[in-house]
Amino acid sequence: MAHPTLEDVAARAGVSRALVSLVMRGSPKVGKERREAVLKAADELGYRPNIMARGLAAGRTGMAGVLAADLHDPLFASVHDGLADEAARRGVRLLLASGGGRPARERAALGELLDLRLDGLLLAGPRIAAAEIERAAAGCPVAVVGRPVRSSRVDCVTGDDAAAMARAVTRLVELGHRRIACMDLGSGRPRVQQVFKAALAEAGLAPDQDVLWRPGGAATAVVAAGDATGTAALTTLHRAGLDVPGEVSLVVLGDAPGAEVNGVTTVAAPAAELGRLAMAALLDRIGDGGAAREGRRVTVPPVLAERATTGAITP
Amino acid sequence: MAHPTLEDVAARAGVSRALVSLVMRGSPKVGKERREAVLKAADELGYRPNIMARGLAAGRTGMAGVLAADLHDPLFASVHDGLADEAARRGVRLLLASGGGRPARERAALGELLDLRLDGLLLAGPRIAAAEIERAAAGCPVAVVGRPVRSSRVDCVTGDDAAAMARAVTRLVELGHRRIACMDLGSGRPRVQQVFKAALAEAGLAPDQDVLWRPGGAATAVVAAGDATGTAALTTLHRAGLDVPGEVSLVVLGDAPGAEVNGVTTVAAPAAELGRLAMAALLDRIGDGGAAREGRRVTVPPVLAERATTGAITP
DNA sequence: GTGAAAGCGCTAACAG
DNA sequence: CTGTTAGCGCTTTCAC
């Protein structure tokens, strides 16, 4: 028998289907005798409950969906660690789908997840329009991580990139640096420079004539905006013959796996923690059973991991 | 109405449920008139088919499961690109689950995926025992990517690390290198050194007294076994004051995203292609409808991406 | 073409 | 405690 059903188990154990159902769900009100008979029969038959059928009948599945905007983003893997942890802790299974980095695909994946009628949906770094998220939330509990969404019925958990920038700068200032530059591979993003200038100002520093780092500049420290930029920064500094952290200190905003291996000092949102909080919010919302609670809005402060690319300035 | 059903649509359109079902699945044998009425009603109601119910009734879901051993492995994201592409091309939806890098979790995730009764299962780089994979394959079409599994009913698609090593070495030899060293952060893996020696021998070179790279050695080229090792190698070489590729050439086995950004020459299995082939094998198997075909075994040759860390030797 | 009837495998009242 | 009775939302014969 390829896939024995509840009925097969019942027949073999000589009991009714309902009894088997109770046993499978670990109900306490079944006699030890019969329970064991049922378990034995199920085991011998290699019985596995059909989740679809269960979900259909019960009206809930015990599963939550996770939509990853882009599997290539190493951040997602860390977020997922937190997500999975919290879900496991609360006995909820996770099903993932990927947006493949493209809004169109993401939209499609969202639709499929919605059609599965899972108990809830967690959107990780969604790139689709807020209105679409809102619409999804109308039919299913939704939480978002990694992107602020202002909506009454969506919980959302985010990091704080401005705070991260500020943390990087203040740390460098503590170390004695006064001429700090910023590096951004995705250059032209005005927000990065803006945030950088604000952080500088907050630390009581005036930006140099040029905010961005350039070889031969006077900067004694560099803040790299993003993981890719960070790796590139390291390479560039080395190529320029600069000793790190002897001559130049480097702080990277973001915490890709490579950073730890290479001993790069980083400031980043604690991804797993974001994930955990988002999942907690989602499960709470599911638990509330649609008590149209106000959307929870959580911002998590960044974490500094001081490794080997930063040092005190020694004139 | 939170989730209108087929029946609601039928009522609104003034037809029977069966007719709506036909329309929703795009059957050609429905009059234009009625079809449009149904579509209109469905749209107005915001109807979305319930996949669980559909799967239960139809006996197939139109979905395949993908079990990722470890989401942190950037390789998986690339494999998934290929997977998703092929699945989309053939009209199959994908549902992912993660093994979280731990065999125990992976086993659990496999069970959940199995319980969903999807049409097929794709295991990406599984770490669980071959026997467990075999067992899963008894109840559901299964294909494996990234790990060789010899089984009559499992298709599997893998890269070829020995060939990758050989490709790296022959390329370096073409460039004039004769003293080539190997670097392996996960040191102690005997297989790596063994494969390296074999590649050297094949290229007509004798290994130096010591196979592994060491600062101050005479090697003019280094092969780094793995992405992490590659990044570390680059840093180490730079720290040692060596010009790359002026004094030392570097080839990394593996193709993490950072490699391209940093212009590192790599040799790696074409991950997306592996994914595509594995998904194709799985869908073929599903299509065969359990015609206990012999397991397909595909090995894909590695690809050299020559970037900026390799150069001809100029004595 | 179209509608009625019979499930898919399971859960959830409800009587015994 | 146990078995019976209805469905969950959809697909699928099979007559009309």
TrEMBL record, chains A, B:
InterPro entries: HTH_LacI, LacI/GalR-like_sensor, Lambda_DNA-bd_dom_sf, Peripla_BP_I. Keywords: DNA-binding, Repressor, Transcription, Transcription regulation. Residues 4-58 form the HTH lacI-type domain. One of its GO terms (molecular function) is DNA binding. The keyword Transcription applies. SMART domains: HTH_LACI. This is LacI family DNA-binding transcriptional regulator.
